[in-house]
């Protein structure tokens, strides 16, 4: 699982740095807000996505190791949750990056 997190981080950084020259100074990130100025954030705010992903993964690993080292069911459940977090956050980051640069 750690390898998957590392690969995901490399993919996100790679996609961003390959498209960096096309990234506008402000990008739409906050889709839950009304259309217009409220949705727009600075270009560096896109890194909130991988930072949150890594925090969630760390918290899940901490919970597994600290509270449920012997409980196989909860360990597997949190590992599946980590897998889904990695996939969804990577997809969201890549999709937003490609949408604003292409």
What are the SSEs and their pairings?
Layout: H1 2-19, E1 26-28, E2 40-42, H2 48-67, H3 72-101
Helix pairs in contact: 1-3, 2-3
Summarize the structure.
The protein is mostly helical and 102 residues long.
Q: Would you give an account of this structure?
A:
With 102 residues, this protein is mostly helical. The protein has one domain (2-101). It contains 3 helices and 2 strands. The protein has helices spanning 2-19, 48-67, 72-101; strands at residues 26-28, 40-42. Strands 1-2 form a two-stranded antiparallel sheet. α1 runs parallel beside α3 (72-101) and α2 (48-67) runs antiparallel to α3 (72-101). The longest helix is centred in the C-terminal third of the chain and has 30 residues, at 72-101. It is elongated, with a radius of gyration of 16 Å. The mean pLDDT is 88. This is DUF1648 domain-containing protein. Keywords: Membrane, Transmembrane, Transmembrane helix. The chain crosses the membrane at residues 5-23, 43-63, 83-101.
Radius of gyration (CA) equals 16 Å
User: What does the largest sheet look like?
Assistant: 2 strands, antiparallel
How many domain modules?
1
Strand order across the biggest sheet?
1-2
- Fraction of residues in β-strands: 5-15%
End-to-end C-alpha gap: 31 Å
Q: Which structural class fits the helix and strand makeup?
A: mainly alpha
The helix content is 55-70%
Shape: elongated
Question: How many β-strands, per DSSP?
Answer: 2
Mean pLDDT: 88
Helix run count = 3
String of helices and strands: HEEHH
The poorly predicted ranges are none
């Amino acid at each position: 699982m750690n390898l998957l997190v590392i690969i995901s981080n490399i993919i996100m950084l790679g996609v961003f740095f390959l498209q960096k020259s096309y990234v506008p100074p402000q990008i739409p990130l906050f889709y839950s807000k009304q259309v217009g100025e409220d949705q727009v954030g600075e270009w560096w705010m896109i890194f909130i996505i991988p930072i949150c992903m890594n925090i969630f993964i760390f918290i899940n690993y901490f919970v597994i190791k600290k509270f449920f080292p012997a409980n196989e069911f909860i360990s597997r459940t949190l590992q599946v949750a980590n897998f889904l977090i990695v996939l969804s956050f990577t997809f969201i980051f890549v999709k937003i990056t490609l949408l604003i640069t292409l």
